[in-house]
What we know:
Layout: H1 5-39, E1 41-49, H2 56-75, E2 79-80, E3 83-93, H3 98-110, E4 115-118, H4 122-135, E5 139-141, E6 157-159, H5 164-178, E7 183-188, H6 192-207, E8 211-217, H7 226-233, E9 239-243, H8 246-258, E10 264-266, H9 274-280, E11 288-291, H10 302-313, H11 321-338, H12 343-351, E12 355-356, E13 361-362, E14 374-381, E15 384-393
Parallel strand pairs: 1-3, 1-4, 4-5, 5-6, 7-8, 7-9, 9-10
Antiparallel strand pairs: 2-3, 11-14, 12-13, 14-15
Helix pairs in contact: 2-11, 3-4, 5-6, 8-9, 11-12
Protein name: Branched-chain amino acid ABC transporter, amino acid-binding protein
InterPro entries: Leu-bd, Peripla_BP_I
Family: Belongs to the leucine-binding protein family.
Amino acid sequence: MYLPRITLITAAVLALTACGKQDAATSQxxxxxxxxxxxxVVVKIGSANPLTGPFAHWGRDADNGVKxxxxxxxAENLKLDGKPVKFEVVSEDDQADPKTATQVAQxxxxxxxxxxxxxxxxxxxxxxxxxxxxxxxxxxxxxVTSPKFTEQGFKNTFRIIANDQQQGQALAKFAVGDLKRSxxxxxDDRTTYGQGLADDFAKSVExxxxxxxxxxxxxxxxxxxxxxxxxxKGEKPDLVFYGGMDAQAGPMVKQMRKLGITADYMxxxxxxxxxxxxxxxxxxxxxxxxxAGAPKESMxxxxxxxxxxxxxxxxxxxxxxxxxxxxxxxxIEAMKRAGSADPAKYLxxxxxxxxxxxxxxxxxDPKGNIVNGTVSLYQLKNGKWESVAKPAAASAAQ
Length: 398
């Protein structure tokens, strides 16, 4: 069809005008979306772990659990106090050191975090917890197992994992009752975690009818254990228990076998890692350890969580990521129920928690301990930890 040239020019101008209006509208929509994103209230969640040093593999694992939960919650487009929320994880390196942990805690307070997930170790968590208590900031631990943590009378401290007294009881019952070991030597690293765990294990061994024939100690930075192991060898133990972490446990079991000590080797959750298997090599085979929680394969949400975790971080779960993920969810769900990220408003909601998490059902007793915490037992076979006893609810701490 023929159109006069003037008509074509007019049509082109109109088309350009329309496109310009459409582009302007699109730009305005994008600007509005960006503004809405900018207008989101940032809720800071502190994540405290050792991110450097011999326990960094634990710390990064725990920190990643917090990050994954926070990212998912942000993607849900939640609103608190009628405003959209973005959850921001503030990660700090406490180096698993009590003094550094208190400095980290004060920085969190100054940074006005709404809550804290951590610290990884009992020795760091306990001194830091007073600072959070004084500031009224909720603290949920996914790995702190010392009974002292929830015996301070603070209303802001919670844990979603069984404690060391419960682990000690389960390990002693297994060592004396199931393995029929009666001459037991104990070593600990003098930390709040290691010594407390060893003390609870020793009491439970005696209560179960076994005998502690030797107590020795080291530090959480030691690498040479030959002197204390030589002392232990003379007592002819049939089981050696270590209260401490994998960084020392691996070299210790190698030196133990080098000395010709054939006794069983046992630890708790600090030893139940792939890192221990790597450090101990063939000498670690057959070792026993516990976990202050259910086996991964029996956790109701582990399979889906594991897939998400690997996709996000391109890493295998070390130990506590499922627990710190759940701890973060507990924190955020309490905020949702309270309709606020103000610690004074949502803290009471944490105590009322009834949540099915990745790790299982989560609820708290009046002290902040998880109700019906589980302890599981494992043996290292062909470089992999395999469950050796059916997990059961741990007996209540006395």
